[in-house]
Specification:
With about 240 residues, this protein is mainly alpha-helical. It is built from 9 helices and no strands. It has helices at about 10, 20-50, 55-70, 80-95, 100-110, 110-135, 140-165, 165-195, 200-235. It is globular, with a radius of gyration of 19 Å. The protein starts with 7 loop residues before the first helix and ends with a helix. The relative contact order is 0.14. The model is unreliable at about 1-5 (pLDDT under 50).
């Protein structure tokens, strides 16, 4: 896949920590990530401002189906366009799935969407820089810790179906946000490590980062909605 020209300057700063083949691979990864975010934004737009498609059970099944299709289609060097279409289709439907949440946010305060998007971008770039500048493999130990926390959160989510604790719900929101930020660092370094181990599948590697980006964005949206709702409640009381 041709590298995105405006990514060249970004990767030139890593000449001391990344060799040329790794930098070229990362250009392709972030190029796919850029296309995926555009596809997701298009999906969200279609849900909110057109009647062509709406987020529902069928689109959710389609999202899962495209993800399975991408993961079950190995990279053989000749099917990049097919696998890229799976990735962009998955991203589009993922954005479509964000539509109901975005509609809620727009009804409360449209500026929250821009704030959340800018915040997510700053967080993603900052944590990516931290991973790229760090010594090779330094943050890979986070994988086990992050997965353990996710498993604990999954278990507590099941328990909270019966307990219905507001504290547990809030803990999940903020802890989940921190965990996804951690996955940005972990997945970035894991991509580099996978490349050194022989994996050149930049499409699948970009999928990991896309999921991280969307997850951070979703968590940030909910956090900002809650803060805005709390402000409105205090104003009514005053």
């Amino acid at each position: 896949m041709a590298s995105i020209p405006n990514l060249n300057a970004f990767f030139n700063s890593f000449s001391t920590t990344l060799n040329s083949p790794v930098k070229q691979h990362l250009k392709n990864v972030y190029g796919c990530l850029s296309l995926s975010t555009v596809a997701a934004a298009s999906g969200a737009f279609v849900h909110m401002y057109t009647q062509l498609l709406q987020a529902n059970l069928l689109t959710t099944i389609g999202t899962i189906g495209l993800l399975i299709a991408l993961m079950s289609t190995p990279d053989n060097g000749k099917n990049q366009k097919l696998r890229l279409s799976y990735l962009l289709g998955f991203a589009f439907l993922s954005g479509l799935g964000l539509g109901p949440l975005l509609e809620l946010v727009v009804n409360i305060d449209p500026s929250i969407v821009i704030t959340a998007l800018m915040g997510t971008t700053v967080i993603f770039v900052s944590f990516s820089f931290s991973a790229l500048f760090a010594p090779r493999g330094r943050w890979l130990y986070l994988g086990g810790t992050l997965m353990s926390i996710l498993n604990i959160m999954l278990l507590s989510s099941f328990l909270n179906l019966f307990v219905r604790s507001f504290f547990i719900m809030q803990a999940h929101l903020y802890l989940g946000f921190l965990v996804m930020c951690g996955f940005i660092i972990y997945d970035t370094q894991l991509i580099i490590e996978k490349y050194h181990m022989g994996s050149r599948d930049f499409i699948m590697h970009s999928l990991d980062l896309f999921i991280d980006f969307v997850s951070v964005f979703r968590h940030l949206l909910v956090i900002l909605i809650q803060k805005e709702s709390s402000k409105d409640s205090r104003k009514r009381k005053d």
